[in-house]
Amino acid sequence: MTNKQKYKGLVLLGDRHAEVREFPYSEPKTGEILIQMKAAGICGSDLHFYRNTPEELGIRRAVVIGHEPSGIVEKVGPGVSIFRPGDRIAVNHTLGCNHCEYCLAGETALCSENVGIAAAGFGGDAEYALMPANTCFHLPQELSFIEGTFIACTGATVYNALRKLRPSGRDKLVVFGLGPVGLSAVLVGKALGATIFGVDVIPERLEMAKMLGVSEVINASETNPIEAVQSLTEGKGVELALETSGSPVAQSDAVDILRPQGKVAFLGMGKGEKSISPEQFMHKQAILIGSKVMPGNLYWEMTRFLIEQKIRFESLITHRATLEEGPAAFKKFDSGAAGKFVFVMD
User: Which CATH number fits domain 6-153+294-344: 3.90.180.10, 3.30.450.20, 3.40.50.300, 3.40.50.720?
Assistant: First the structure.
């Protein structure tokens, strides 16, 4: 245990104001572990809170933000037997009640009492953080702490969605939105054998997607994605689509670019605007799938996949920052900069 009496953490105060503050150390309670953080990612969902007013932030205001942490066990609390000081840790960032049918199946995101670790007071954008042991996993030595941040949310969310779509070498997959989630989908989709088309409106993101091996990129601010995909597929459409942006226009386009009996998974969180009519998918008998956080019971399957396929999400990192640089990092990410932002605590 460190002899320091306080640690630093990043908080949101509302209206795009982030700040680094000091917090007193707390001993881990029963079932908790204290983690020395080594890396933590900024998620696209964090931007929603960054843009909130102080009133909209509610319980999230002035508490440590972040749900994509990875680090080393510093100390274990009473009742914890599966972790020891020095263990490398990754996290499933959604907590549940631990006893309903969904929690018992690892699907904490479906629990009626689900809550993210930051909202529950276990935010990861800090030098140290307490964490419920039952939401933590041993991070394999083959994977870096930065890979661990992707497993906490971004990469795992993509893996869960593509597992439902099941792309193969027979399929063309259109990814709408080429932020960190979309770019992660490019890496996983390519490893599964699919031909990838990417859609976005930001040139830097489109360029990065090309560098990662996307077969065709479509700038939706200049070209109609439906017409572009029709041209690329001889008018047939594609087998699969993944919508990560949350844009109602993209949500609709993701259905319209499908060939008969095609499948689309929706990951992007928008503002709840109506975007799709049943007529768009009824006649072609398309399959629409909602997807969210990866269930914990897929953790070892995913980590084996990453290791065996030599997928490294770290290639998506374009901005590394210290915690002290956190306010500037959020401002930069909010501007639409390409790639993934991560805090490195070393």
Answer: 3.90.180.10
